[in-house]
Every structure is written in structure tokens, then in C-alpha cells.
Design goal:
The N terminus is likely disordered. 78% of the residues lie in helices and 0% in strands. It is built from seven helices and no strands.
Length: 212
């Protein structure tokens, strides 16, 4: 049995059809993710319009430096992910695996920085709930509720992405992918880029309010 026949699923005529189906399936999944995050964004925007002063005051308690570093980290991870996909398409096994693990490393850096931010918020009693304490408008608790909901869901997606990319990197190192078969790398890349794009929206929405 050839390598192509080994990875071709029985319900597809050829690898091209299988690749197109995989890509379409991932895009369909990402559309549902857009709707999910879109609901959070809409709720956030509604209350930001109603309480602009409270949102601005609360935003100033976020660490813009850590947020900016995380933005740069995710932009770099998108680059390594894109290069990994290109490596898989051109049959460069070691380069693909190395770039995928670089993506994983950058993802872990992002999560580590986010954990530091969360610890600061717990220490400052800025976590919504009975112990919430903020010297400012009481509506600021709404901002932090959206902050933890939105960044928490994003971090969960990052964790899933790190696990997926690690698995794909293992298979890449084992030589599973080739110029004829690289769909898993490409569709995982689509997921990773989507998660990065979500953060590109979250950073200005949460960290840059009233910074002018």
C-alpha cells in the first residue's frame, strides 16, 4: 500500500477531495466560533456604550505592557505556523516539526503571561464576585466580568490549539505528511490563526480604552 493510499479515507475518491472536505469542515467550524465570540463581543459593546466611564476606569487596571507582549507573541506564532504549513507542503519534515514546536512554545509563553495577569487580578481583588473591590464606578465589575469571560474562553482555545499543534508536530516528525498529504497541518493552522485573530480584537477592546 502506498503512502497516499494509507492516509486516504475510504469515503473519499482521492486526496484532493479529502483535502477540500477537511478545509471546508474547518471553515464551517470556525464560522460557529465567530458566532460564539461575536455574542460576547456584542454584549461587551452594548455595556461599553452604556457605561463608557466605568469601562475606561477599569481598563486602566489592565497591564498594557503584558497585553502588548502577548500580542507580539501571537503574531510571531502565526508566522511560525504559516511557515510550518509551507514546510509540510514542500516536504521538509524536520523544518515542519521544528516550526510547529516553536508555535507551541510561543503559545505556552502567551498562556504563562496570561496566568501572571490573572494572578495580579486575584491579588488586587478585581475578580467579579463577593470579594470584588474597586475604587471606582460600581459598573466596572461588568467590565471585569467580560474581561475574564472573553480572555478565559480565548485561553481555553489556546490550550486546545497547543495540544493539537503538539500532536501534529509529533506526526510531522514521524514523516506522516508530504506534499501530497498535508491537510492536518493546514487545517490546524487555520484554527491557530483564528485564535490569534480573536486576540487581535480583544487587545484593543480591553486594554486600549481611554489610552489616548
Amino acid at each position: 500500500m502506498s503512502d497516499s493510499e494509507h492516509v486516504l479515507q475510504h469515503h473519499f475518491d482521492d486526496l484532493k477531495q479529502q483535502h477540500e472536505a477537511s478545509t471546508l469542515g474547518m471553515w464551517a467550524f470556525l464560522i460557529t466560533e465567530v458566532l460564539f465570540f461575536g455574542g460576547l463581543f456584542a454584549g461587551y459593546a452594548q455595556y461599553r456604550i452604556r457605561y463608557p466611564g466605568a469601562y475606561a476606569a477599569a481598563s486602566h487596571h489592565l497591564d498594557i505592557t503584558l497585553g502588548a507582549i502577548n500580542t507580539a507573541v501571537l503574531i510571531a506564532s502565526s508566522l511560525t505556523m504559516a511557515l510550518a504549513v509551507r514546510g509540510a507542503q514542500t516536504g521538509r519534515r524536520k523544518a515542519t516539526a521544528g516550526l510547529l514546536m516553536s508555535t507551541v512554545a510561543l503559545g505556552l509563553v502567551f498562556l504563562g503571561i496570561k496566568a501572571v495577569e490573572y494572578s495580579h487580578k486575584f491579588h488586587e481583588h478585581l475578580v467579579p464576585g463577593p470579594s470584588f473591590s474597586f475604587d471606582g464606578p460600581r459598573e466596572s465589575q461588568l467590565f471585569f466580568s467580560f474581561y475574564f469571560a472573553m480572555t478565559g474562553m480565548h485561553a481555553l482555545h489556546m490550550i486546545i490549539g497547543v495540544v493539537l499543534v503538539t500532536i501534529i508536530a509529533w506526526f510531522a516528525w514521524r514523516g506522516r505528511y508530504s506534499p501530497e498529504y498535508f491537510s492536518p497541518v493546514e487545517v490546524t493552522g487555520l484554527y491557530w490563526h483564528f485564535v490569534d485573530i480573536v486576540w487581535i480584537f480583544l487587545f484593543p477592546m480591553l486594554y486600549l480604552i481611554g489610552r489616548h
